[in-house]
Amino acid sequence: MAVPKRSTLKLTKRIVERLKVERKDAIFWDRDLAGFGVRVHATGRKLYIVQSRGPAGLKRVTLGRVGTETVDVRRREAAVVIDRIKRGEVPIPPEPEPEPTVADLAERCLEKYVPVRCKPSTAKNYRLAIRHHILPALGEKALKDVGPEDVTALHYELRDRPAAANQATWVLSRMFKLAENWGMVPPGRRPTRHARQYRGTSRERFLTPEEYRHLGATLTRLEAEGSMMPSAVAAIRLLMLTGCRSDEILNLKWDDVDRTARVLRLRDSKTGPRMVPLTGPVLKVLDGIEREDGVSWILRGGKAGTRLACLSWHWRRIKQETGLHDVRVHDLRHSYASRALALGEGLPAIGRLLGHVRVSTTAKYAHLVRDAEKTAAARTGDSIGAQIVPGRAEAA
Description:
It is a single chain. This protein has helices spanning 13-18, 71-86, 102-117, 120-138, 148-157, 162-181, 209-225, 230-242, 246-250, 280-287, 312-322, 331-342, 347-354, 359-362, 366-388, 392-395, and strands at 8-9, 26-30, 36-40, 46-54, 57-65, 257-258, 263-266, 274-277. It is α+β, with helices and mostly antiparallel strands. A hairpin with a 5-residue loop joins strand 2 and strand 3 (36-40). The protein has 16 helices and eight strands. Helix 3 (102-117) packs antiparallel against helix 4, helix 5 packs antiparallel against helix 6 and helix 8 packs parallel to helix 12. The strands form two sheets. A five-stranded mixed beta sheet has the order 1-2-3-4-5, covered by helices on one side. A three-stranded antiparallel beta sheet has the order 6-7-8, with no helix packed on it. The radius of gyration is 30 Å and the shape is elongated. The N and C termini lie far apart (90 Å). The protein folds into three domains: 8-86, Double Stranded RNA Binding Domain (2-Layer Sandwich); 102-181, DNA polymerase, domain 1; 209-356, Intergrase catalytic core (hpI Integrase, Chain A).
């Protein structure tokens, strides 16, 4: 067993409560009793431990979770255990396996599930929800003791941040589903089953034809002036022309361009591999990008061999230049869907273009269909009414 690098300090209740680590687990050793310490996990879980060398070599024993006993009690227990180890005796009587806690589940989720099954943006949401909201509220609670009232309390505590509240309860629900799969709780033991979410305050913003023209002219001007990276200009144009997500465009490689089949092959899309039609305007943008020998990325970054990492800074510049201060990069995707609807495309076709797996995801654009239908009905009704309803022609 490798001996960890020692960080010693006087362990007190206040000190132990404040101990935390960012990425890797760490052990903080007591200055007064050699071999007594606290192991702090990145998930926030803390355990009192003992480490000492006896006739059989180095042994490490877990005394229990922080919070179940005082530091002084654990220090006295540690002294007894250290003495037993040095005399070659069994260091501590076997204890019943402790009930798994929310912190235990969070640790396993972050180690075994999130890195393997989640995209980077989703993984970030998991980590934020777990570390900032779930663990502080429920970390030391046994899974079997978490009830609907705890979920409701967590959700209510974040009432001033409804998006964070909904995210936290969604992540907690997923964690308990995994706990069922891993045998940590009995099937059906999910306290989040009937949790209610705060009503969304989704902000819809679609570019008008005039705004499209203004944005296009601004990109052309910045490109001609050389005051914006060519890769950034091309990326924004591709987002406008395809309705793709930012990461899907930024991760494009030249091998993804299939000119024979006239498609872009997105190998690592949020919803899995998919193909995007390669239209004439998209081809024109791609043909205008200068290729660099040995570089597979279509949208190159500022350093040799790298790709364009993000559009945040470039988009802030665009908003300043155009005055479109309330438009986000993702609104280009919404605008693409809106334009497709205006041209008569149905929701199923638009869902396929956007790479939606569930119809419900595309359904948020349904009101645009209804608006278009109302406009069409009004035009049609006015046209017929002018000919058959007395007085309509004069009014028109």
